[in-house]
Design goal:
By secondary structure, the protein is mainly α. 87% of the residues lie in helices and 0% in strands.
């Protein structure tokens, strides 16, 4: 692997971690029952954006 390949792989790994963290945050908000619908929608949009960047 070249340096560029390593950087790309590292960036993808960071995006995957962020995606997973957002998923856990969304689940926690939903389970709490005190969630703001707009906040959940924003988090879901961020999650989709990250998924698109990973792909």
């Amino acid at each position: 692997m070249t340096m560029e390949d390593n950087e790309i792989a590292e960036k993808i790994q960071q995006l995957i971690i962020q995606h997973r963290d957002l998923d856990m945050a969304i689940e926690a908000l939903i389970e709490s029952g005190k969630s703001d619908v707009l906040q959940i929608q924003r988090l879901k949009k961020q999650k989709l954006y990250l998924r698109d960047r990973i792909a």
